[in-house]
């Protein structure tokens, strides 16, 4: 089952990253909700690893009340996974599962992308492409590089 999930995410990589597909990068699927991060990393061999982190980075009104705390939570989460082999960059799919009053705002979407980029750099787990979803629906696809 993990192999088909891996392949589905790999197939959704933007066209400009076709070369990255050849390296079969790790794919981090991160569920974000109130003060909780759950991540599953899918690997090219079909295996996967799952970890969970709790931190005080949100409240009832705001998804993020503290950028530093949220960044550190993602760093701590990424540290739980092994480093990528041969410097291969990973892909992140961040899904906000928490129901928000007005949905996910563009500011929150941008903050998720920035948090993922900053945290992956601090954790030395390079993430080249971040896909942001709100309750499963694609919000924004942003590439870094």
Folded structure, characterized:
By secondary structure, the protein is α/β, with parallel strands linked by helices. The chain is 31% helix and 30% strand. A six-stranded mixed beta sheet has the order 3-2-1-4-5-6.
Outline:
globular
| Beginning-to-end CA distance, first to last residue | 31 Å
Give a short account of the largest sheet.
Answer: 6 strands, mixed
Helix/strand-derived class? alpha/beta
Report the uncertain regions: 141-145
Give a count of the beta strands, DSSP E runs of length 2 or more: 6
Strand order of the biggest β-sheet: 3-2-1-4-5-6
Order of helices and strands: HHEEEHEHEE
Report mean pLDDT, rounded to a whole number. Answer: 84
User: What portion of the residues fall into strands of 2 or more residues?
Assistant: 25-35%
Kindly state the percentage of residues in helix. Answer: 25-40%
* CA-based gyration radius: 14 Å
Q: Helix segment count?
A: 4
């Amino acid at each position: 089952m993990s192999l088909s999930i891996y392949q589905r995410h790999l197939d959704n990589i933007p066209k400009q990253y076709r070369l990255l597909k050849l390296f079969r990068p790790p794919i981090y699927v991160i569920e974000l909700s109130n003060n909780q991060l759950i991540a599953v990393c899918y690997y090219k061999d079909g295996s996967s690893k799952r970890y969970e982190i709790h931190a005080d980075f949100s409240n009832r009104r705001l998804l993020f009340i503290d950028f530093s705390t949220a960044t550190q939570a993602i760093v701590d989460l990424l540290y739980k996974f092994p480093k990528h082999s041969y410097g291969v960059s990973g892909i992140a799919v961040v899904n906000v599962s928490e129901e928000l009053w007005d949905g996910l705002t563009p500011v929150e979407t941008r903050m998720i992308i920035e948090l993922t980029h900053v945290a992956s750099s601090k954790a030395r787990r390079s993430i080249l492409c971040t896909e942001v979803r709100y309750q499963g629906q694609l919000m924004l696809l942003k590439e870094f590089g």
